[in-house]
Each structure stands twice: as structure tokens, then as C-alpha cells.
Specification:
With 237 residues, this protein is an alpha+beta fold. It has helices at residues 4-18, 114-117, 131-141, 149-154, 164-173, 187-204, and strands at residues 25-28, 43-49, 52-57, 61-66, 72-76, 86-91, 96-100, 104-109.
């Protein structure tokens, strides 16, 4: 599943294409949305909220999407047509955006976006980012049965935007076992974890290739993620 930095970059690109422009085509290929047409309505902004995308229109409606495991938004020339993988097509006079293999697609009043994303914790890359609140959420989660610090980092209700890559890299860099119960960690350690995650994603959103090691060469860009059974980059063990 794409990490929060990838979703943030997707939102930024869609915003660059659509902000202030009227839609010339709108084809939502989702059963309960198929009759909705927002053509001629202007885009106010496209924003990310954790791993969610919010395309806000001047009519007071929001098109919400989530990429899940395999989804993506592709920017194509204006005359591009939908294909078998297209779940949403939005176009201006200059560009077409294809929502391919989307995991979620909804239309809600912008004032009601909280019904879709209100359960999320502070967005690691959003204006609401608050490390103290995120660390507190992880502390509270630590008292649930079978809670692990790895699982708490991935729970979007605690903090929004961290996926498996950044969870693994954060805990490796903080030298913490991902199966450790959050309740066993001191407050300072939980705060350091969420602050580390924020730094990693904040750096990652500036580049097309994610890296936590400083190298963007293929096979050299992570410390732990995707390297099961291979020698540790730090100690060689």
C-alpha cells in the first residue's frame, strides 16, 4: 500500500493539474456513483489526509479516493480514454486523470468529509501534525491485548500516513523490536518514534524514490524493509 509521502505527492500533482480549472469530463466508474457528473464544476483543491485523497469542488462536493494496495492516479493527455482498470476519469481542457484500480471511491459533501477521514490520527504530513498527540495515541493503544509498537505505528487512528516501509525503517533506526508492546516504552521513546517517522516521510515526499539510507540506488535505499534474511547494513550480522 502506498505510504503517506506517495499519496501526498499524488495530491500535489492532481492539485497542480486541476486547481481553478473546470472539469470537462467526469466519469465515476463505481456502482453507486455512476450517474454523478461534475462536469463544468471547478476544483478548489486536491489534498491528502494520511493515505486518503480529497478532491474538493466549488459546488461543495468532495470526490474521495483511496489507493489501497494497487491503485494510482495517472495524468494523461486530454483525449485519453478510460480502460478496464479505470475507476474514475476526471479531465480538464489540458489534462486527463485516470484513477486506476482504486480501492475506495466516494462522493460526499465537503462539510461531511469527517465521515470518511474523521477517525484518523494526526496526519504525519498535514497541518494538524502533533507529535505529542500521536505519541499519546500510541501509548493508549499499548494497553490493548496483543498490542505491538509495529502495529500501533501502522494503525491510522494513532497517526495517519505511516505504512510498512516507514514503520520498519523507523523502528530499525530507533533500535526497537517491532513486536515490543508500546506500554513497555517510556514516553520519550514513543515521542522519538513518531518524530522519526515524521522526518522520514517529510524527506520522502520531496523525492520520487523513497530512501531512508541516503542512497536512492535500487537495493540500497532501505535499512530493513524488504531485506528479510539479508545481512544487516549496520553490523553485517
Amino acid at each position: 500500500m502506498p505510504e503517506g509521502d506517495t499519496v501526498w505527492r499524488t495530491a500535489r500533482r492532481l492539485h497542480q493539474v486541476f486547481a481553478g480549472e473546470p472539469l470537462t469530463r467526469c466519469d465515476l466508474r463505481w456502482p453507486e456513483l455512476a450517474t454523478i457528473d461534475f462536469s463544468e464544476q471547478r476544483t478548489l483543491e486536491v489534498a491528502s489526509r494520511g493515505k486518503h485523497l480529497l478532491h474538493r469542488l466549488d459546488s461543495g462536493w468532495t470526490i474521495h479516493s483511496h489507493l489501497r494496495m494497487d491503485g494510482q492516479w495517472r495524468i494523461e493527455p486530454p483525449d485519453t480514454r478510460a480502460n478496464a482498470n479505470t475507476r474514475a476519469l476526471l479531465a480538464t481542457s489540458q489534462w486527463t486523470a485516470l484513477g486506476q484500480r482504486l480501492g475506495m471511491l466516494d462522493v460526499v459533501r465537503t462539510a461531511d468529509e469527517h465521515t470518511l477521514v474523521g477517525h484518523l490520527g494526526p496526519d504525519v504530513l498535514g497541518p494538524d501534525w502533533n507529535p505529542a498527540v500521536a505519541a499519546g495515541n500510541i501509548a493508549a493503544a499499548g494497553y490493548l491485548d496483543d498490542a505491538t509498537i509495529g502495529g500501533a505505528l501502522l494503525d491510522q487512528r494513532n497517526l495517519a500516513g505511516v505504512g510498512t516501509l516507514y514503520a520498519a525503517e523507523t523502528l530499525f533506526l530507533e533500535r526497537l523490536n517491532p513486536w515490543l508492546p508500546p506500554s513497555e516504552l517510556p514516553d520519550a521513546a514513543r515521542l522519538a518514534i513518531v518524530e522519526r517517522a515524521h522526518r522520514l516521510l517529510d524527506t520522502g515526499r520531496q523525492h520520487a524514490v523513497q530512501s531512508t539510507t541516503g542512497s536512492r540506488r535500487r537495493g540500497e535505499n532501505t535499512w530493513a524493509h524488504g531485506r528479510s534474511g539479508r545481512p544487516c547494513r549496520r553490523c553485517g550480522g
